[in-house]
Amino acid sequence: MSQFSRRDFLAASLAATGTAFSLDEWACANQADTTRNPNLHIAAFRFDVSPPKGHSLCGGWIKPVVGYDDSLEAIGYVLLGAGKPIVVCAVDWTGLLNDAHIAWRTALAEAAGTTIDRVAVQCVHQHNAPFACLNAEQIILEQGDLPHIVELDFFNECLDKARKAVTAALPKAEPVTHVAHSQGKVDKVASNRRIDRDKNGKIVRMRGSSCKDETLRSMTEGTIDPFLKTIAFYNKDKKLVSCHYYSTHPMSYYGDGRVSSDFTGIARKQRQQEEPGCTHIYFTGCAGNVSAGKYNDGTKPLRGILAKRIYDGIIASEKGLKPEPVGQLTWKTHDILPPVRSTFSVEELTKTISNKDNSVVNRNRPSYTLAWLQRVEKKIPITLSSLQMNDIKTLHLPAESFIEYQLRAQSIQPDQFIATAAYGDGGPWYIPVAEEYPAGGYEVSVAFCDPGIDAVMTQGMKSLLDS
Question: Cα(first)–Cα(last) distance of the chain, in Å?
Answer without folding.
Answer: 40
